[in-house]
Fold:
Amino acid sequence: MFRALYTAASGMSAQQLNLDNVANNLANASTAGFRRRRLQFSDMIYQNMIMPGSAATQQTTVAAGLQIGLGTRPGASEMVQVQGDFSQTGNPLDLTIQGAGFFQVKLPDGSTGYTRAGTFHMDAQGNVVTADGNPLDPAITIPPDALSITIGEDGTVSVTQPGQTAAQQVGSVQLAMFANPGGLNSIGKNMFLSTTASGDPIVGTPGGSEGLGTLQQGFLEQSNVSTVDEFIQMILAQRSYESNSRVVQAADQMLQQLNTLGR
Structure:
């Protein structure tokens, strides 16, 4: 009975964390480039009351054994890499990646961050930056007198200026991809950092042979959260939590009956 209490408690704790993850997914349903996460669970250790394969007699062995599991625990929060829907904005600095690549951003500490959110802006110096003011890597500077900005599928950035008939190339967007994007470290603000689990970034030009994908100007990739799926996960987590709490109640009632035997 005491074992059941702790086992059910592990299930309740796991479902609490599952609901936390669902809440974060739903909260970011409108976050550009957001990747939803899915919790993965694993069973805990087992108490071997009769070991499978142990000798039953001199000629036979125990076929199945008797093992009692001691609950569950969250093992990982897998980042789902399904691409989100595209929405047209018409903003020339809104970009979306049709493929597996990530934008590279230079962070204040000098490191490189990676993001799928293509909501870029210009700062006072004409640099193309994120909403937090972090510049694209490599840096791209738009002349202050630029009349129009064109970004090709291959990342080439061109502008037209007064008195010029031909567009001038001012830079090129490069992308990065990873052997295991699920191993990236989420640091918030739509940003990821590479880890030993993700592997080193493979950097290249959009549309190249690396499989980075191509760019689409004037579009944004939306979150890949499905509110319907998250609601289903929320209901399942709620019902599982309720089931585990009933095990706690049943074990408590059995303990109460045990305490009354000697009266």
In short: The first strand starts at residue 37 and ends at 43.
